[in-house]
Amino acid sequence: MDYEELRDSVFLGDDPYLAHVVSESGATQSEKEHLSGTKELAERNCPLEILKNIVISGALLHDAGKLSEEFYAYMKDVLKNGENARKQMIDHTSAGGRVLENITGRGTLSEFIGMAVYSHHGLQDGIEMETGTTLFEKRREKEIDFETVRQRYFQIIDKKCLVRYLAAAHADLRKICKQIDDFVQSAGGKDCGSKDFYLGMFERLTLSVLIDSDWTDTACFCQNESHPERITEERTQEIWQEAIAHFEAHMKEIAESGKKSPLNVYRDEISDLCFRAAHEEKSLYRLTVPTGAGKTFSSLRFALYHAQKYHKKHIFYVAPFNSILEQNAEDIRKAVGNSEFVLEHHCNIFYEDENREIVYKKLTENWNSPVIVTTAVQMLNTLFSGQKSSIRRMYNLCNSVIIFDEVQAFPVRGTELFHLAVNFLTTFCHTTVVLCSATQPSLARLKENNLFGCGEMAGSSKRYAAAFKRVEIEDATDLVKGGMQPEDISGFALKAFRKYGSVLIVVNTTRCAKQIYEELNRSCDEACRLYHLSTRMCPKNRKDELEAMKRDLQNKEPVICVSTQLIEAGVNVSFGCVIRSLAGLDSIVQAAGRCNRHKEVEMGKVYIVKMAYEVEQLKQLHDISRAQGAAGKFLYYFKENPAAFDGSLDSEKSVTAYYKEFFRDAGTAPTKYPIPSLGTTLDELLGRNEPGRKQFERKHKGKAGMPRMCQAFATAGKEYKVIDENAEVTVVIPYDEAAQKAIASLEDRFTPMAEQKKAVRILQQYSVGISEHLLKKLGRAVHRIDDAAALVLSMDYYDKKEGVLEETRNRFLNFGSVK
After folding, report:
1. Which of 126, 337, 381, 756 could form a disulfide with 385 if both were Cys (CB 3.0 to 4.6 A apart)?
2. Cα–Cα distances in angstroms (integers) from residue 23 to residues 31, 81, 193, 307, in the given order
3. Residue 669 has what pLDDT?
4. How far apart are alpha carbons 272 and 298 in whole angstroms?
5. What DSSP element (H or E) covers 200?
């Protein structure tokens, strides 16, 4: 395909029809200008050669409906009357799909490109779940002035040229389907995913390019700017070279300035293995090493060298929690030597300078930076959420290296979806993925939808287990019949405290943590520094407490901390003893990583205890309850035959056996992301969509006319949530002067919009999620800021050691519930 020839010939003469207008300046963008700009960006941004003809065809067709007389009249009205123009919702997506079908007929090509055209303002289902009507039937039946649109469209688009693009797109789509068929067959059928799921991911990738190209061209017109320049391949290679040089110098500096440790020999060995792996063409790895083995820097070393050798465009570092992300983002910036190379994308980032804030927002819109440090929430939303802003970024995952850190902490509910997305990226998108964890969930195979071709980057973790063993884990779950009460675990912790000097207690619920803290507060000697960490505390409060606790631990002060599992992953603290309430073995091993972290003593001590059922109350916490049950069964097997698990509760054999038990207990549905209200799963909706197919057969009295694109993209996108919010509402805490100032800015009606936006970003550090039930109980202790969505909690109902209180400690205050 001669793109230069087609680029010059696809557009015909000038056209008077309007795609966009700016009423304030009187600027207008014609339909031809917008289609041309979108096509140019789609062609440039398309990450896969095999998709190029497809995305160009979609770009040329996506806004054909704007050529209707109705839309033209609306644009003229907006141009003349601005905000006073009558608001109208005019369907301008149906016509493009109809033009397409008019040329190609009904088939896979018209469905595939048509789905992207129909969805560029919002995801659509291939089959309507309730009625069985297909998207393509609905669009054919839409009442639009199709003949007028068709005639005008071919006045500005050369039909022969469009047909050539579509012919090439058809050939490429057949190649894509062949690639998918070959992969699924070679991977053992459903063992590693279905054909329909992978075709659906190609559809989402096409839509990603189209949305970004459309939005970018529109924004550039409205802001009177040129299309943004992308980083060239030559410059990207220069960046990798600069980053590698600085990384090696930085690591040498750390080695020379730090304490000599026998563990450094093993850390260096792991790093060297990652370096060697970087020069291999393999695209999917596990990096399974114990906590403290330096996996962040080792995986980054792999990513830099691999990106340079195989000309990758981006490196992504993805972590499940902000606490890990913020800490490691700073390490990554220092390691690569230039903060301009690194985009840190999560909800807690904001800039005082408005111009920097604008630049940051543009970069996060499509992740066009060399190194992107982001959360699992952002990444998984990019792959599965229905939000257009998330879909828009997806195409930049191609031709990249993605490091998923602490992968065991990713949601169990979406395990199979995650596997399938990783398979798609590594098999079809020229992307290399590294899964980092001390406790790899994928060591145990599922009945279907497993990872394909995953290799161990640093070899067997058994080699390093003995070297990095810093704790002895003891099963003490039978210590108290029926499980521990707060006073039992308090007494047990105080005995351990007298022996080990510092103790961390990790339990499964905020309510349990608070009860234990209150019991210890009554029992502890004044010399003991007692801390409490919980999601009932705002992030700034938790950060302040963590920093104070770290200082005390470093100064060898006597410390006891009671926490929920938020402390387990990525928090660099070291206690002499850890007491962990029974949970999944992965959580127990992570908690153990907070004990004797820097090998201050020969061997630290970790106890697994069991809390009484009524104390933790896990009835609604299904994942934790299920993990607890699986861990309980595994502990029984271990007690019967420790040698079968290398005599260690945190061995690779133990972790694998635990996950096998967990997935056996869980069945398949939880890992497939069940949707009880629809009686199906998310991976089914994004794959074959059997419920939709059955509805189609009922409506049409058979399978005749069943579309190839049956996936329920819109329904799945709407249902998908990385974290189950459990109907939580967010309240803002006037915790300190910065929070109080931000709240005052929102309460002042005369505060400029830019200042209000800044205040909202600041207050993310002072927000706590609470249940609707607690919100009602707090009553007038919570007030809503006028004209803003923020709810503010009175500080009389907040304690800096405990977080949100259900009752005030001030006996003169009792707001009561509002009736």
Report:
1. 381
2. 17, 7, 50, 46
3. 66
4. 8
5. helix 195-222
CA distance 740 to 646: 55
Q: What are phi and psi of 319, to 5 degrees?
A: -130, 150
**SS3 of residue 28 by DSSP:** strand
The dihedrals phi and psi of 47, each to the nearest 5 degrees, come to: -85, -15
Contact 93, 117 (CB under 8 A): yes
Query: Residue 583 carries which side chain, given as an amino acid letter?
Result: A
Evaluate whether 35 touches 154 at the Cβ level (below 8 Å): no
pLDDT for residue 699: 94
Instruction: Report the alpha-carbon distance of residue 372 to residue 317 in Å, rounded.
Output: 6
Using CA atoms, how far apart are residues 622 and 614, in angstroms rounded to an integer? 15
Burial class (CB in 10 A: 0-12, 13-18, 19+), 550: middle
Which pLDDT belongs to residue 349? 42
Contact criterion met (CB below 8 Å) for 17 and 219: no
225: left (phi over 0), alpha (psi -120 to 50) or beta: beta
Candidates 591, 580, 671; CA nearest to 623 is: 671
Per-position DSSP letters for 418-442, written without gaps between them: HHHHHHHHHHHS--EEEEEESS-GG
In the chain, what are the helix, strand and coil shares in percent, each to the nearest 5?
55, 15, 30
Q: Could you tell me which of 611, 564, 557 has the C-alpha nearest to residue 591?
A: 564
DSSP 781-814: GEEEPTTSS-EEE-GGGEETTTEE-SS-S-TT--
Give the integer Cα–Cα distance in Å for 717 and 719: 6
Token pair, residue 102, equals 């008019």
Percent of the chain with pLDDT over 70: 93
Signed CA dihedral, 67, 70, 76, 81: sign only: negative
Q: Which helix (H) or strand (E) holds 520?
A: helix 510-523
Strands (E), 409-558: 432-437, 455-456, 471-475, 502-506, 529-533
User: Residue 45 corresponds to which amino acid?
Assistant: N
In contact, 531 and 501? CB cutoff 8 Å: no
Question: Residue 41 and residue 221: Cα distance in Å, rounded?
Answer: 13
DSSP code, position 558: -
Q: What SS3 class is residue 620?
A: coil
pLDDT digits (tens, 9 = 90+) for 591-620: 999 999 878 888 999 999 999 999 998 877
Which residues of the chain have a pLDDT value below 50? 1-4, 6, 348-360, 815-819
End-to-end CA distance of the chain: 71
pLDDT at 7: 52
User: What one-character DSSP code corresponds to residue 730?
Assistant: E
The order of strands in the sheet holding 782-784 is 767-771, 728-732, 791-793, 782-784
